[in-house]
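Page 42, continued from yesterday. The earlier attempt failed because a stray header line got pasted into the input along with the sequence. Redoing it now with the clean sequence only.
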Amino acid sequence: MKVIVAGAGTLGRRVARYVGEKHDVTMVEKSGERCASVTDEFQGFVNVRVLRGDIDEPAILLEAGVDRADVFVAATGHDEDNLVGCLLAKHEFKVKRVIGAVRNPRNRWLYNRSWGVDVALDSAQIVARLIEEEATLTDLVRLLDLRAGEVTLTAITATADGSLAGKTFAELGIPEGCYPVALLRGNDVVMPGQGVRVEVGDALLVLAGPGGSCRIDTIG
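This time it went through. Structure tokens are written below.
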């Protein structure tokens, strides 16, 4: 597949690293200094190229190949840029799957179909899995599609010094509007159950429904 990643910050680089081993990835970044750094970082990735430019400009997106892209990932550090990029990718260039990274939780409600966003996420690993392992996460993708982007999926990694590791699902404090759906443990997907215990390194997937009062940072 051809994947365009807008933004070469930490999130964009992680997405490119996950996906670039198997797919054609073009990263778009407007900072010349960062472009040079990322070009050096990805010298060993023959499928990854870096293009300097602003994703708000249709000409730059065309140079990146957006008109031939299968997936567009907006992963800059600014929600306004991500949303404009998603809008252009979906409505101007008809990209089949548009994924937007939410930077400020207060802006999450904007990440919907009217802005061209098919899936709103905030984790590079989950973005990569949605691209490469649709068969594993088909039900989640369908749910997000049915709700026109109003349902969001978030991944929270359990760290050794955090509040998640060592607790069972029964012991987790889940806020109203949050729905834990699975644990990603290495290459395995572990379904939630009252007695399932979260381990260090697990990524907890949480769905937040439309209008829900989910506070991700209070889970633990």
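Notes: Residues 134-147 have pLDDT under 50 and may be disordered.
Reminder to self: strip header lines before submitting.
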